[in-house]
Amino acid sequence: MLTKTFGSAVHGVNAYTITIEVNVTPGTRYYLVGLPDNAVKESEQRIESALKENGLRMPRQKVLVNMAPADIRKEGSAYDLPIALGILAASDQMQGERLAQYIIMGELSLDGILRPIKGVLPIAIQARKEGFKGIILPEENAHEAAIVNKLDVIGVSNIRQAIDFFNGHIDIKPLQIDTREIFQNTVNQYQADFADVQGQENIKRALEIAAAGGHNVIMIGPPGAGKTMLAKRLPSILPPLTMQEALETTKIHSVAGKLGTAAGLLATRPYRSPHHTISDVALVGGGGVPQPGEISLAHNGVLFMDELPEFKRTVLEVMRQPLEERRVSISRAKQTIDFPANFMLIASMNPCPCGYYNHPEKDCVCGPGMVQRYLNKVSGPLLDRIDLHVEVTPVTFDQMTETRRSESSEAIRERVIQARQIQEDRFKDFDEIHSNAMMPSQMVKDICEINAAGKTLLKTAMERLGLSARAYDRILKVSRTIADLAGSTEIKIEHLAEAIQYRSLDREGWAG
After folding, report:
1. Amino acid 360: pLDDT
2. What are phi and psi of 158, to 5 degrees?
């Protein structure tokens, strides 16, 4: 008897429906075809044990399982449940009339308990798009799938529950959650707040500008100056995620298996802080089965790279293209997968190996040339993609013991949102541009016009401070953001002057 069940395969951040055809006919042996990997092939042993533990049997006939389309590789153990239910229906051990109405996914343990799987959200989105009534999956994944409305999400804890559901012996109520209400209640719930940071008002101002324009930042300062503390609080002043951004971000984390078992929609901007020993594949994504890397997990959020010169040179260089294109392409012999990577890069570093170059109180013990060699570990092309260079100085004792609380993240965020709204209106005719940092060079000339006095100031600054040519566009973009924060339609002298001071590493002789 021929029976069909339906599963799903995840490639990149999208899912594709897989038809699982099971035919039980006279004969012997078990055949699994359709380009399965080893994990799928091993499902026979898990299925046989799970059926036996639940009082069922594996047919002692010829069992042919075909997974179509046959040219797409099927990977992972999540096909155990649809294959098992297909075998039971094809051997008349359960009713199979309703199997075609549902996408079915789940890994079986030897006793029939279902284990959670990865990539549930894109699977559920695709199921609704293709008109399936619902989705059958492990109970732990039900909250994640319930983000998708107009889809019956049936969470089951073991194979016996799934069988009884299709036989009509039990009625499992579909899980329903109010996604929008949960999203609205948690959209700005950050544990860290800028009100906790004493002093460092100039650094807060720089990070406010970065958040308002989507600019990348590098902070240079001695150990203990507060670089990490400030970076952790940057997501709290970014504009709230839109529902579309939240879905995109949650899909990536779902595919990577980074969502908790009871997690639903991600409502806060992600903050990723990889260790400096990370490999280039772990950072940008890849592997035998391409998975999103840290830069994709930071999509719509912040990627913080602490002690930037300590990262391997190859790791830093592979970031150059994603920083420009805001996506990363993973190419393999038979497929190319795109992962989104629209993130803000926040980097920090010590000014020298000992950490105390330019320190107001402690002396630097590094030898001649060591400071420059340390800075040269970060390549010019990478620095070219970082708009703001900020020097962080230690907080004084009086600032640390001050009882007055600093300005809260909420107050700063309101100004950032207003500036971003100005940019949304400015770029409403451009689908791929949403902030000043995304402007290409040809657009900078039209949008970032400066008057004669501004040109004179910029020319003088570039000549006297020895600013590089690549600093020109960055200064104009940052000055445009500063003007937006001030509610000004034109870039004034004071906006340009403030932007110029954020190019520390471009100054000739900065490292002595």
Report:
1. 80
2. -155, 170
